[in-house]
Specification:
single chain; 5-stranded antiparallel β-sheet
Amino acid sequence: MAHLRLLLLLSGPQLLVLWCWLPSAGFLQVEMAGETQTVLLNDNATIICKVQGYHHLDITIMGITWFWKHQVSATEVKLFEFFGDHQMTVRPGASVSLRRLKRGDASLQLPRVQLREAGEYRCEVVITPHKAVGTVQLEVVAYPVSSLFPEQAMVKENEEQLILCMASGFYPTNITVTWKKWTQKDPQYVEFSEGVFTNCTTKNEDGMFNVTSFLMLKPSLEDNMTTYQCVVWHKSLPTSQRLNFTLTMIGSQKSACTLKYYIKQIPYSPS
């Protein structure tokens, strides 16, 4: 919003009133995308910074500077600068679209964002002689790659079977792994914790994390065709990851004897 300046020009008997709208230091503002923006690792990021109330700007009398500060550092680094015919890029690939800047959009484009680039980004816009500043926290996340081992379980009655649900390559560290099962008696997925152990997350050399959850089974014949589900939830995911396997009971002595009995009862009929 701009303040109103009234100019009175006297020309003979006539009074000419001219209304001029000029930007004011108190009202020049930039709009960011909230307090935090989140981007996936290796994705291209657009860090929002828009000049409020301006749709047509003369970029020859304005400038835009972007700064970055790491989460654990107090030192700011200049990433991009544009003033008139001067343009400087420190971070490779960083850019501001001059075409969009004419419409008041000073957003910063960053290709293939890395984990180390998380932190505070500051947008500084100058429309001579006024200035506006906005800041936003950029959070970089990586989604887990999850898998089951083994993918199928074929178990004898009362024989122990260890199932692993592994989630790897995620960031940040907080993650939730739970187990559910579906049975023919109760045909809906129900969460359980018996026989479940989930270890602590471990950190890779690249800064990302891994975790493994273990399920120890010692099933009976009643557990045949039970479906187990490992559910992985992480803030990088739009929905939880769900990995299923169905338990198959095989080779028990009881089932072998029963099968032999029924074979004996089948009458022989020559063709």
